[in-house]
Amino acid sequence: MLGRLNHVAIAVPDLAAASAVYRDALGATLGEPQALPEHGVTVLFIDTGNTKIELLEPLGEGSPIAAFLEKNPAGGMHHICYEVDDIIAARDRLKASGARVLGDGNPRIGAHGKPVLFLHPKDFFGTLVELEQV
Prior knowledge:
With 134 residues, the protein is α+β, with helices and mostly antiparallel strands. The protein has helices spanning 15-26, 64-71, 87-96; strands at residues 5-11, 34-36, 41-47, 52-58, 76-84, 108-109, 115-119, 128-133. It has an eight-stranded mixed beta sheet with strand order 2-3-4-1-5-8-7-6.
């Protein structure tokens, strides 16, 4: 079921400042910022060759990233994303094993235009897990 690591997401309070650090200090090539109102975030991807880093900034009042940043004002790792071939089969298998799928349990379209689901961090050792269908 589990495929390759798609990305590691880092919540940041200021996307422009964070992307400048990745560009200037680490020499990263940056993607373009993308607003995702349905997820309450603005994202920017950095391709590292073997995976990606996703920088997340809150978008709007109800952003789930805003709540994360209240607890972690400087930012920090928000989630890890794995690829799956069949997101519905993965969801059903996980639910049958007792894992909790966040939201209404139905996939939503993520930043790459593909179906995604999030799994409760308490079921995965404190790590919020995103699954993305490839």
